Amino acid sequence: MHIYFCGSIRGGRQDVAIYRRIVKKLQMYGDVLTEHVSHADLSEKGEDAVLGDKAIHDRDMEWLALADVIVAEVTQPSLGVGYELGRAVAMDKRILCLFRTSSERVLSAMIRGADSQPASSLFQVHDYAEEDVEGILEKYFGELAKT
Ligand SMILES: O=c1[nH]c(=O)n([C@H]2C[C@H](O)[C@@H](COP(=O)(O)O)O2)cc1CO
């Protein structure tokens, strides 16, 4: 299974430790195409010194098209993550967004409002506490395996 993980880069790297934790767990279920998003040594500048913005965008759109599932940590707001999610919806992809309730933020209505019940729908938003993140992913991928 190909998994596309989304997390903030130029939007701010405050949550990189939780991205790492999520990606490690996701690697139990498949190939995480965007593992670099979780690397502590990737700064807010992003990969531009190596790749350039057009190459980053075009590669990521190819990976998005290839992905079976998109998992996005959406607590730290990021234009890039919002864009990836919109493009993924247009591609009819299966999407799980994770939002940490301990943060003082309020998730954008354009993300929370895209969650369409029932729980089996393609676009899901889960509020979570950091210590529960592995359990939430186990449940999500367990359900996915049944479909
Ligand atoms: O260097 C990069 N590499 C890269 O893969 N991205 C993608 C993956 C992330 O899920 C998302 C982050 O967007 P932003 O940088 O606007 O926070 O965009 C974004 C950048 C920099 O914008």
Automatic annotation (TrEMBL):
Q: What class of enzyme is it?
A: hydrolase
Coiled coil residues, start to end? none
Q: What is this protein's function per UniProt?
A: Catalyzes the cleavage of the N-glycosidic bond of deoxyribonucleoside 5'-monophosphates to yield deoxyribose 5-phosphate and a purine or pyrimidine base. Deoxyribonucleoside 5'-monophosphates containing purine bases are preferred to those containing pyrimidine bases.
Query: Gene3D superfamilies from the xrefs?
Result: 3.40.50.450
> According to its UniProt record, which protein family does this protein belong to?
Belongs to the 2'-deoxynucleoside 5'-phosphate N-hydrolase 1 family.
Q: What is this protein called?
A: 2'-deoxynucleoside 5'-phosphate N-hydrolase 1
How this chain assembles, per its entry, is: Monomer and homodimer.
Per the UniProt entry, the Enzyme Commission number(s) are 3.2.2.-
Record keywords: Cytoplasm, Glycosidase, Hydrolase, Nucleotide metabolism, Nucleus, Phosphoprotein
Q: Does the keyword Phosphoprotein feature in the UniProt annotation?
A: yes
Q: Which residues hold substrate? A: 4-10, 19, 84, 108-110
- Superkingdom of origin organism: Eukaryota
Chief place where the protein resides: cytoplasm
